Amino acid sequence: MSAPKTTTHLEILRLLRDRQGCFVSGTALAQRVAISRPGVWKHINRLKQMGYEIESRSGLGYMLVAVPDSLAPGEIVSNLTTRWLAHNYHHLETIGSTNDYALILAAKGAPNGALVVAEQQTKGRGRLQREWMSSPSRGIYLSLLLKDPLPVSVAPQSSYIGALALVKMLREQFAVPATIKWPNDVLINGRKVAGILTEMQSDQDFSRFCVVGIGINVNHSREEMAGPFRYPATSIALETGCAVKRQTVLLEFLSRFEHEYERFLDLGLLALLPEIEKYTEMMGKTITVVCGNREIIGEAHGISSEGALLLMREDGSQESVWAGDVVRIEGAL
Hints:
This protein has ten helices and 14 strands. Helix 2 (about 25-35) packs across helix 3. Strand 6 (about 180) and strand 7 (about 185-190) form a beta hairpin. The protein is of the alpha+beta class and about 325 residues long. The protein has helices spanning about 10-20, 25-35, 35-50, 75, 100-105, 160-175, 220-225, 235-240, 245-265, 270-280; strands spanning about 55, 60-65, 90-95, 115-120, 140-145, 180, 185-190, 190-200, 205-215, 285-290, 295-305, 310, 320, 325-330. Strands 3-4-5-9-8-7-6 form a seven-stranded mixed sheet, with helices on both faces. Strands 13-12-11-10-14 form a five-stranded antiparallel sheet. Strands 1-2 form a two-stranded antiparallel sheet. The protein has three domains: about 10-65, Arc Repressor Mutant, subunit A; about 75-280, BirA Bifunctional Protein, domain 2 (2-Layer Sandwich), CATH 3.30.930; about 285-330, SH3 type barrels (Roll). The termini are far apart.
């Protein structure tokens, strides 16, 4: 499956964006995209329906005045700085789950690095099939398709890469104290801002592909964050005190993820562990982890090279925890 071609209305959008604040004649647009002037008018109307504010003036042409807070291809694809990630771009207004859609694309032969992003999910989910709230046009709900053949014990470590990339991006771009909550959440000031769900299909020894699904709360209000959530929630806007352009969040995250994922492929998880542990919320603290019917209490003192959380029990014994829920962190509210 090849990357989607640039369609005519997106090419017109690019031309208007290059001259944003100035009028571009219908004749010039028609010549550049090789269509008639009535064809230009038709595509301008389509852009307006997508939320772009375009002024039309007789004798002068068209001028792009403002762009919507949208993750549509016209706002993302032409601004990508990645080499291979997300160039096969699938944007959906509403979908049950971006992970489910990405799994279907993988089965149809979508390329490595394909991205599915939705303005709204109706059946978003986290670990253990828990529901993920997906308010329309407020957050970023995405799934990345990764097709590198990794050992089945290594491929799920992609969740750590997603968390590390997001934490570093949030700290650098928005100056917020983002941290990782093992195994798959990102927090700001102790409140959940993002969740990660990695799903894999494999042969006996190696993965066929991984889908890394990430939900990020971007412009959710305090009222939208209220409710019977398992963990207190927040959004980037609430933590920074102002609305945030979702396009910026997505583009910066994709760039950071590609960089960290390539490091992971080249060096392995062990090389990234010092950074992952540095940003992990619970390191050095006594925590309570529920693993099925067991409750484990111990001091979190590291992550193994295979990705297990390392706990030091009160009796001095060490336990490796591969999956579970952290239900209490010493000193946390």
